[in-house]
Amino acid sequence: MTAFRIAAPRRAPLLLWAALSCLLFVSAAHAQQKRDLTLEDIWAKRDFFPASVEGVQWLKDGRHYTSLVPAAGNPQVQDIVRFDIATGQPVGTVVTGESLRAGPAGLLEVDEYAFSADETKLLLATALEPIYRRSNKAEYFLYDLKTKKLMPLSKGGKQQYAAFSPDGDRVAFVRQNNLFYVDVTSGQEHRVTEDGVVNQRINGALDWVYEEEFEFAIGFAWSPDGARLAYYTFDESRVPQYNMQKWGKLYPDNYEYKYPKAGEINSAVGVSVFDLVSNKTVKLDVGPETNQYLPRMKWTSSGATVAVQRLNRLQNKLELLHCDATTGQSRVVLTEADPKAYVEVTNDLTYLRDGKRFVWSSERDGYKHFYLYTLDGKAPQQLTKGAWDVDQLLGVDETAGWLYYTSAEVHPRERQLYRVRLNGQSKQRLTTAAGWHSIDISPAFSYYFDAASTFGSPPVTSLYETQPGGKGAKLVKVLEANQEVQQKLAGLNLSPVEFFDFTTTENVRLNGWRLKPTTFDPAKKYPCLLYVYGGPGSQTVEDKWGGPNYLWFQHLAEQGYVIISVDNRGTGGRGTAFKKSTYANLGKLEIADQIETAKYAAALPYVDPARIGMWGWSFGGYMTALALTKGADVFKTGVAVAPVTNWRFYDTIYTERFLKTPQENPAGYDENSPVSFADRLKGNFLMIHGTGDDNVHFQNAVALEEAFIRANKQFRSFYYPNRNHGIYGGVTRLHLYRMMTDYFLKNL
Questions:
Q1: Taking a C-beta distance cutoff of 8 angstroms, is the pair 572, 538 a contact?
Q2: pLDDT tens across 623-651, in order?
Q3: Burial grade of 606 (CB within 10 A; 0-12, 13-18, 19 or more)
Q4: What pLDDT, on a 0 to 100 scale, did the predictor assign at position 16?
Q5: Contacts of 232 (CB under 8 A, 6+ apart)
Q6: Which residues contact 16 (CB under 8 A, 6 or more apart)?
Q7: How do residues 685-736 score in pLDDT, each as one tens digit?
Q8: Structural Rg of the chain based on CA atoms
């Protein structure tokens, strides 16, 4: 955390000192006055939400980028402004928001935009309507920068995922589970598929479980020459349907969608290729097995081959297929397997422009690292190596021979930017400041944006220029320093973060952070709240801006609480042995480590061992429910938000990745379910859930409630009508955090 200090006054000339001393004393005393945070500060006024550089698009000339900027006369409308990379200064407006008028609809409020390849046209999205976590639909418009003509992409209803072809002549999109494309010049709309039906068949988009757990939503891809469209097909007709009631009307509406719970039937998934010239469709050969996953699909650098990743249902064998786009024939190029656990799916597969090589990531040596392969999947060369995990592959600069990436090499709680030669030599660290660096690098790899933050400091977004050879990178300009937020933070009573680690009785070293009360007195005993998530590959111990939750923890510290968070076994950034140790017994080692954390906290001289609590959301809610049942002798109070209470209720992809199926591993599901330990509940327990949660169903809360009732255990619960897994909208978050705060103040 960056400490904010009041600068000492400079020494005044002797003759002036007497005259100024009183004024300086009063000014210094005034400057030192700090105030406490309120929940309204965090969730109503939103004064501490940092700004970011939004809507960035790198332009192909390598000298400019564009960004969405609020219009000077009307901040509700955004202009698309061109910036000079070398100076970071605006040098022109691509299009003003005021000029985007769509007849009776009035001004367009641009949510997203994209350029055509030749940068003469824009695709604008407005009236964005979320569907699930990563999916949405919108009204799309085409704007010609030469003629200034604005026209709707389609008049048949809102579209999803509209995208230019590489030559900019066409735009593909999905509507009502079918794939379409529009000829940009004529405006003529063409239908690629005919058989899309809600809750039956999907073309060009994904079903719920793929979107949520494989973490993408767009289910089609243009070939490099723009002559073909590869797209996913989902037959979800046999997938069990989940029903949620939507409250508000006299008779509530039912919302029905396909959700495969652990052990149940998944969609049958395929990939097809449509040829725009011949109007013919070819189905790619992904094997006879339908009880499998195809978690990634993309074109190679050739417009003749589609790369499809095939994953078995148990998710311990991943194959890379190269499929002929004309015949559909396929061959296995590469296989990753982990007979003792699972294989991760990433976005790292990158085909080089030379058409001869690709980059792949693997955990085969115990840590995630990058490898360079020949196109036939042979002669792998390891590009990064060490007892640390790489994180994100940012791209490959083939001209200069560099691979850019972020990693946890310095420490699991940090992310730093590096580059390494394509022969695995001359690795360089480009970022120098401690903390977390989120990078957006230009296509030419000459510049990058770095949004850098630490635990108590909001992101500072800067523009850097990469230097040739071994010279690293040079700062061009700080684009967003968030000085206003920094100044407001400086006026608060904030507790500095303390990072620490400790060793458990099982000889496992765990990383953590803590905040002490802002009026800390080492002679006093304070209540302690553990913040947990704890799920596979996740981290809460990160040296980066924590946003509203960080501010809420500071608010609790002002009320006299010690806040501690520790990453248990199963979390990320520390290699596969640590991450995969929880395989097939989800919850067992995780809660053991959190109980050890509570005992570690209880032994601290300033913590009251009788007043230890826990709070978590989602997987963290699951952990909190376990803590107050399985760990009931250690914890006094817990608040679980949207918890999984029985993994049998959760989806196939996530749950079976870590537990196998319920049919194969019933004990793994039942022996660490809070439902199984409901009769052990002793402390104060509050469970909160949204009735419209499409992810962790309200069913989880009902099941645990029923178990508590049968065990004659008293508890508290609260349900937010129609709210999804995020529980937000209007003043909902303020209401939620006030409820949780009051509960801890009363019960911990």
A1: yes
A2: 999 999 999 999 999 999 999 999 999 99
A3: middle
A4: 30
A5: 202, 203, 204, 205, 206, 219, 220, 269, 270, 271, 294, 297
A6: none
A7: 999 999 999 999 999 999 999 999 999 999 999 999 999 999 999 999 999 9
A8: 27
Tens digit of pLDDT for each residue in 510-524? Answer: 999 999 999 999 999
pLDDT digits (tens, 9 = 90+) for 241-271: 999 999 999 999 999 999 999 999 999 999 9
Q: In the structure encoding, which two tokens stand for residue 366, read together?
A: 């115990």
CB 91 within 8 A of CB 83: yes
The tokens of 364 are what? 């085969």
Tell me whether residue 411 is one of the annotated catalytic residues. no
- DSSP structure class, residue 346: -
User: Smallest Cα–Cα separation from 183: which of 192, 193, 174, 170?
Assistant: 170
CA distance linking residue 175 with residue 571, whole number of Å: 38
Is residue 376 scored above 50 in pLDDT?
A: yes
Based on the residue annotation, tell me whether 67 is a catalytic residue of this protein.
Answer: no
Local structure of residue 539 (DSSP, 8 states): -
Residue 558 has pLDDT above 60, yes or no: yes
Which residue, 282, 140, 320, 295, is CA-closest to 206?
295
Place of tokens 């900019």: 168
Is residue 246 within 8 A of residue 255, CB to CB? The reply is yes
Contacts of 405 (CB under 8 A, 6+ apart): 370, 384, 390, 391, 392, 393, 394, 417, 418, 419, 420
Q: What is the reported pTM?
A: 0.93
Q: Which pLDDT score, from 0 to 100, does residue 15 have?
A: 31
3-state secondary structure at position 141: strand
Q: How far apart are CA 330 and CA 307, in angstroms?
A: 9
| Active-site option among 67, 361, 495, 618 | 618
> Residue 154 to residues 60, 100, 128, 142: CA-CA distances in angstroms?
28, 17, 15, 10
Quick one: pLDDT at residue 1?
30
Q: Which of the four pLDDT bands, split at 50, 70 and 90, describes residue 5? A: very low
Active-site residue 693, yes or no? yes
- Side chain identity at 248, as an amino acid letter? G
Tokens of residue 564, six digits: 């501690």
Q: Does residue 28 surpass a pLDDT of 70?
A: no
Per-residue b/e over 664-689, b at no fewer than 16 CB within 10 Å? ebeebbeebbbbbbbeebebbbbbbb
Please name which of 222, 111, 108 lies closest in space to residue 171, comparing C-alpha atoms.
222
CB 254 within 8 A of CB 242: no
Q: Which residue in the list 689, 693, 694, 697 is annotated as catalytic?
A: 693
Which helix (H) or strand (E) element contains residue 287? none
Whether the per-residue pLDDT at 47 is higher than 90: the answer is no
Phi, psi of 667 (to 5 degrees): -65, -35
pLDDT above 80: residue 102:
no
Look at residues 398, 397, 402, 366 and name the one whose alpha carbon lies nearest to residue 383.
402
pLDDT in tens, 276-312: 999 999 999 999 999 999 999 999 998 899 999 999 9
Give me 690's structure tokens.
Answer: 């949204």
Find the catalytic residue in 322, 555, 689, 725.
725
- Mean pLDDT along residues 158-179: 97
Contact 321, 308 (CB under 8 A): yes
Q: Are 685 and 716 in contact (CB under 8 A)?
A: yes
CB neighbour class for 30 (10 Å; exposed up to 12, middle 13-18, buried from 19): exposed
